[in-house]
Write a structure and sequence with these properties.
Elements: H1 2-17, H2 29-42, H3 48-79
Helix pairs in contact: 1-3
C-alpha cells in the first residue's frame, strides 16, 4: 500500500511544483496508466486541490476498510470458524 500512496502523491507534487526535473512526464506504461486514471481528477479546468484531497480521503477509507477486513479474517482463521 505504501507504493500506491507514493504513486498517488505524484499528481499532488506535480500540481504544487510543476512538471520540471524529476516530476516531468515520461512515456512509461505506468505514467500512461496514471494519466488515464487520474486525469479526470487532475485535468485542466478541474478544481485540482479539492479533487486530490477527496482522492486521498477515498484511498485512506479503502485502506482502513481493507485493514479491518484483513484483521477480521485473520481472527476467523485463528479461531477456526
Amino acid at each position: 500500500m505504501d507504493g500506491l500512496a507514493i504513486i498517488f502523491l505524484n499528481p499532488l507534487l506535480t500540481h504544487l511544483f510543476g512538471e520540471d526535473g524529476a516530476l516531468a512526464r515520461s512515456n512509461t506504461a505506468l505514467d500512461r496508466w496514471l494519466s488515464v486514471i487520474l486525469d479526470p481528477f487532475t485535468g485542466t479546468g478541474a478544481p485540482v486541490t479539492r479533487n486530490l484531497v477527496l482522492l486521498f480521503l477515498g484511498a485512506l477509507l479503502i485502506k482502513n476498510v481493507a485493514s479491518y477486513v484483513a484483521a477480521y479474517v485473520s481472527v476467523l482463521v485463528q479461531e477456526g470458524l
